[in-house]
Amino acid sequence: MEFKGKTAVITGSNSGIGPGVARALAAAGADVVLNSFTDSDEDHRLARDIAAEFGITARYVRADMADPGDCRALIETAGACDILVNNAGIQHVAPVPEFPVEKWNAIIAINLSSAFHTTAAALPMMRKAGWGRVINIASAHGLRASPFKAAYVAAKHGVVGLSKVVALETAREPITCNAICPGYVRTPLIDAQIPDTAREYGISEDEAVEKVILLKQPSKEFLTIEQVAGIAMFLCSEAAVQITGTTIAADGGWSAQ
Ligand code: NAD
């Protein structure tokens, strides 16, 4: 795959899955725009390191995906957007009656509405360029529910619905829009939860992974960041031209249940 001359914008890409997707796209020659709501030396260093490693242009652009204006400004600042990966996301866990309103609003804004705003700003650029890929990083929770995750499950189901609408609106054009629905992915965030969970339940770390964290994931294996990035690359490939408006579940069998 060769994406030389194409620009990819990856929201929420200073930790976890986002930089992994950015690196895979950069390795294929795409220029990348990294993003989060912070503006630290480390954020900009990440972009410089990717640029140096892959010989492409990489920029870090601060934009808060909770803010509609920032979402649209991110795409405008990028100047071009051939590949849009809506990846920014947060989580909060609480029963519905106690779910803090500000957490509900933040999760809907960052995990769902940001994808609407960035896509709205990016589609005219993709149309002008005559090619485009919108890849929404949803979740197994875009297809299945779990208790105490009202906002996250609602937002991720919403992202799946948004992906279908964008696919229909672009169906006659060389643009596709799909959602990737990963089960649990081994990110530093998850790594940090393993010893805590083991301690909380009084079990070994292996048991904490199998019986608690991966309870719903029949494979009992985490996805890797590289596997999620690989699916995004597949969706950008020629083989995937007719794949639009759908979900790719990568969840070790979770959604088969
Ligand atoms: P992460 O916390 O490492 O990454 C989330 C990214 O979003 C970070 O770069 C963070 O800075 C950014 N972000 C958060 N709030 C933001 C805001 N207001 N504006 C801009 N950026 C913001 O977690 P991750 O696991 O890499 O998650 C990435 C995506 O994958 C999320 O949408 C998440 O829901 C989804 N996902 C993760 C898993 C998993 O098991 N890790 C499984 C399924 C789906």
Q: Can I get a quick summary?
A:
The chain has 257 residues and is of the alpha/beta class.
Description:
It contains 8 helices and 7 strands, in the order E-H-E-H-E-H-E-H-E-H-E-H-H-H-E. The relative contact order is 0.14. It has a 7-stranded parallel β-sheet with strand order 3-2-1-4-5-6-7, sandwiched between helices. By secondary structure, the chain is α/β, with parallel strands linked by helices. Helix 5 links the parallel strand 5 and strand 6 (175-182). The model has no long low-confidence stretch (mean pLDDT 97). The chain has 2 domains: 7-185 and 223-250, Rossmann fold; 186-222. Helix content is 47%, strand content 14%. Bound molecules: nicotinamide-adenine-dinucleotide (NAD). The site of nicotinamide-adenine-dinucleotide (NAD) has 27 residues, from helix 1, strand 2, helix 4 and helix 6. Nicotinamide-adenine-dinucleotide binds next to helix 1, strand 2, helix 4 and helix 6.
Secondary-structure blueprint:
Elements: E1 7-10, H1 17-27, E2 31-36, H2 41-54, E3 58-62, H3 68-78, E4 83-86, H4 101-129, E5 132-137, H5 150-169, E6 175-182, H6 188-201, H7 205-213, H8 225-236, E7 247-250
Parallel strand pairs: 1-2, 1-4, 2-3, 4-5, 5-6, 6-7
The structure holds nicotinamide-adenine-dinucleotide (NAD).
The site of nicotinamide-adenine-dinucleotide has 27 residues, from helix 1, strand 2, helix 4 and helix 6.
